[in-house]
Amino acid sequence: MEYFKAFVVGGLICVVGQILIDKTKLTPARILVTFVVLGVVLQLFGLYQPLVDFAKAGATVPLTGFGYNLCKGMEKAVSENGFMGIFTGAFTAGAAGLCAAVVFGFLAAVIFKPKPKSQ
């Protein structure tokens, strides 16, 4: 049942993104930024944590989950370090994921040969 909940919630988040791409003039980059900010704002008001508790990876893997992760890291750092946590918390929380993205992106670029687009 956990897989089903994760699939449905993650799928719905992606459906919203696809609808925004298809039906609005927003660029994909703006939609991605909107999703990250939405995750932060929802976590700030305590609305995203119940979704994470319900859907687990279905809520943490999409970009809204990245915003949630940044906000959680900042909340933790502020409670531990005070005002300085505002500047360090998001970086600490997102460091592993960002590092993995850079390393795996580099490895993919080294291993696979890019092909030019055919016109």
Count every beta strand, where a strand is a DSSP E run of 2 or more residues.
Answer: 0
Kindly give the count of domains: 1
Percent helix: over 70%
Note the gap between the termini.
Answer: 46 Å
- Which structural category fits the helices and strands? mainly alpha
**What is the approximate shape?**
globular
Radius of gyration: 17 Å
Mean pLDDT: 94
- Tally of separate helices: 6
Strand content: under 5%
Low-confidence stretches: none
Order of helices and strands: HHHHHH
Main sheet record:
none
List the SSEs and their pairings.
Layout lengths: L1 H22 L4 H17 L3 H8 L1 H4 L2 H19 L3 H27 L8
Helix pairs in contact: 2-5, 5-6
What's this, in brief?
The protein has 119 residues and is an all-alpha fold. It contains 6 helices and no strands. The protein is 82% helix and 0% strand.
Jot down its keywords.
single chain, 119 residues, mainly alpha, 6 helices, 82% helix
Verbal overview:
With 119 residues, this protein is mainly α. It contains 6 helices and no strands. The protein has one domain. It has helices at 2-23, 28-44, 48-55, 57-60, 63-81, 85-111. The N and C termini lie far apart (46 Å).
